[in-house]
């Protein structure tokens, strides 16, 4: 008789499933629908307009007062609202990020993020092999979705610059006069602008879609390095980057949105653009080789399937093969999210 047939043996418990439903992760599972409801009912806009009581906010949203009270109190304990004897109020930061119409409004970004699998369509997409199920995040029409997220960085670049203290030192890239940096899919450009701030003779070329580059230009202006910056708008995969034009090329959190064919082409183009001995930096989550241990990185997989036509999770060995195939050498994993390689001297 096997263990599963032995009535005297204790049944195994589905701890992984129970933890998912009721353990530490259950709090985000509760909080995210609450946040979504608050955004869809525009409670922050109602409060900003002077409606501070439950009934006034419920009336503005055309909703049930009891349900609205429960929602508002939940948002309060989540620190997304304030509350006193006179009613509900906005935290100071919410005026910038949770009011529609503001350039830094994150509501649409959050709603899109929370609906990435389109309420149950992921299974059908996998069954049929039809991807993506939302607008492909690599296409120019999707850039509007990311703008508020990067606008936060563009408006406060000095704050986010602190994240790159030691970043380039870890990569053994020292700011020096004449250093030429290419930042692909740069977003607000903070990572490469950090080098420009450290040395006023560093030159940075920022590449992204035009609307995103507008934010990077704003960040450069606030950091006082505008004269050190050149812009390269357009499709990262279609652009020509020249021959021996740069000493450093960075691809930050973008490679995992593409399949191996596109990455091979891109890495070859970057290799050509680098001077002999030049450095390419790939910043992306690195999964383990068996794709069964690094939870956060592996969990990106279904999301990448849903939001891109070719995105995938990659390990260090995957990047090593791709980079060496493109002609790079000395490929190394600097840490769990940074890969570095050299163009042969």
Q: If you had to describe this structure to a student in words, what would you say it looks like?
A:
This protein has 345 residues and is of the alpha/beta class. It folds into two domains: 15-92, Winged helix-like DNA-binding domain superfamily/Winged helix DNA-binding domain (Arc Repressor Mutant, subunit A), CATH 1.10.10; 154-342, 3-Layer(aba) Sandwich (Rossmann fold), CATH 3.40.50. It has 16 helices and eleven strands. The chain has helices at residues 15-22, 26-40, 43-48, 54-61, 65-77, 94-97, 107-114, 121-128, 143-155, 157-161, 167-170, 190-198, 210-223, 260-273, 295-307, 316-325, and strands at residues 82-84, 87-89, 180-184, 203-208, 229-233, 246-252, 274-283, 286-287, 314-315, 329-335, 338-342. A seven-stranded mixed sheet has the order 5-4-3-6-7-11-10, with helices on both faces. Helix 2 (26-40) packs across helix 7 (107-114) and helix 4 (54-61) packs across helix 5. The termini are far apart. The mean pLDDT is 92.
Q: CATH homologous superfamily name of the largest domain?
A: Vaccinia Virus protein VP39
* Low-pLDDT runs: none
Q: If strands are numbered along the chain, what order do they take across the biggest sheet? A: 5-4-3-6-7-11-10
Per CATH, the architecture of the largest domain is 3-Layer(aba) Sandwich
**Share of residues in helices:** 40-55%
The total strand number stands at 11
Radius of gyration: 24 Å
| H/I helix tally | 16
Nearest-integer average pLDDT: 92
CATH class descriptor name of the largest domain? Alpha Beta
- Major β-sheet annotation: 7 strands, mixed
First-residue to last-residue Cα separation = 67 Å
β content, as a range? 15-25%
The structural domain count equals 2
Query: What is the helix/strand order?
Result: HHHHHEEHHHHHHEHEHEEHEEHEHEE
Shape: globular
Q: Give the helix/strand class.
A: alpha/beta
CATH topology of the largest domain: Rossmann fold
């Amino acid at each position: 008789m096997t263990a599963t047939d032995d009535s005297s043996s204790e049944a195994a418990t589905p701890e992984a499933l129970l933890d998912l439903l009721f353990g530490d992760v259950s709090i985000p599972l509760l909080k995210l629908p609450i946040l979504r409801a608050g955004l869809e009912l525009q409670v922050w806009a109602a409060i900003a307009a002077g409606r501070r009581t439950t009934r006034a906010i419920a009336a503005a949203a055309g909703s049930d007062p009891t349900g609205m009270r429960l929602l508002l109190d939940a948002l309060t304990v989540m620190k997304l609202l304030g509350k006193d004897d006179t009613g509900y109020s906005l935290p100071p930061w919410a005026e910038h990020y949770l009011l529609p119409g503001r350039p830094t409004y994150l509501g649409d970004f959050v709603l899109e993020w929370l609906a990435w699998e389109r309420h149950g369509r992921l299974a059908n997409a996998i069954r049929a092999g039809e991807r993506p199920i939302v607008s492909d995040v690599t296409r120019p029409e999707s850039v509007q979705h990311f703008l508020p997220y990067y606008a936060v960085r563009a408006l406060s670049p000095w704050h986010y610059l602190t994240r790159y203290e030691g970043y380039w030192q870890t990569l053994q890239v020292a700011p020096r006069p004449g250093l030429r940096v290419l930042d692909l899919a740069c977003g607000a450009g903070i990572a490469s602008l950090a080098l420009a701030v450290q040395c006023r003779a560093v030159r940075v070329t920022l590449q992204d879609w035009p609307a995103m580059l507008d934010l990077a230009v704003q960040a450069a202006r606030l950091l006082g390095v505008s004269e050190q910056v050149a812009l390269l708008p357009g499709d990262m995969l279609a652009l020509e980057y020249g021959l021996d034009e740069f000493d450093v090329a960075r691809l930050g959190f973008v490679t995992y949105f593409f399949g191996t064919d596109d990455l091979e082409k891109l890495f070859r183009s970057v290799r050509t653009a680098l001077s002999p001995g030049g450095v390419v930096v790939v910043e992306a989550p690195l999964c383990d080789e068996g794709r069964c241990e690094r939870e956060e990185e592996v969990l990106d997989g279904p999301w990448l399937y849903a939001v891109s036509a070719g995105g995938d999770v990659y390990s260090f060995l995957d990047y090593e093969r791709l980079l060496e195939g493109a002609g790079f050498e000395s490929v190394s994993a600097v840490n769990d999210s940074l890969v570095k390689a050299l163009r042969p001297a």
